[in-house]
Amino acid sequence: MNFGAHHPAQLLTRAIGKIARNALWQGGRLLAAVLSGTAGLGFVIYAAFASLRLAVGPELAALVTGAVLLGIAAVLARSFGWPGVSQQTKPPAATPAPAAGPAPNPGGDAATLAVFTLAFVLGRQLADRQKD
């Protein structure tokens, strides 16, 4: 039994093949863009590290670069609302007000603490270099 070129099954097969080829082509282009962007970001990070290394030394440059990348990762993780990444919330309205006195220091979040510590260490390192 010969159904001819216009049989619905053959038309469907051709359409699916065309969609699959198009999806693979688009996926390949997206993969190339992601890989190129990742490589470019890696070179930008290396250039920042290399420049900083000349100014403050390799150990401190590695510390600063790593802390900045960890800070960026923390901010991105918080923005996605991933499980296990705490987000501060306001206490319920029914909570009674605390007694009069000095307000407790909440300590800030981890990213703020990391940036403060990094700035402190960097400032101390630069001050020590100027003394010598």
Main attributes of the structure:
132 residues; mainly alpha; 3 helices; 71% helix; 0% strand; elongated
Write the SSE topology.
Elements: H1 8-56, H2 58-80, H3 110-131
Helix pairs in contact: 1-2, 2-3
Count helical runs: 3
Structural class: mainly alpha
How many DSSP E strands? Answer: 0
CA(first)-CA(last) distance:
95 Å
Radius of gyration: 28 Å
Report the helical percentage: over 70%
Strand content: under 5%
Low-confidence stretches: none
- Give the overall form: elongated
Q: Main β-sheet, in a few words? A: none
- Give the overall average pLDDT: 79
H/E series: HHH
Descriptive overview:
This protein is mainly α. The chain contains three helices and no strands. α1 runs antiparallel to α2 and α2 runs antiparallel to α3.
Summarize the structure.
The protein is mainly α and 132 residues long.
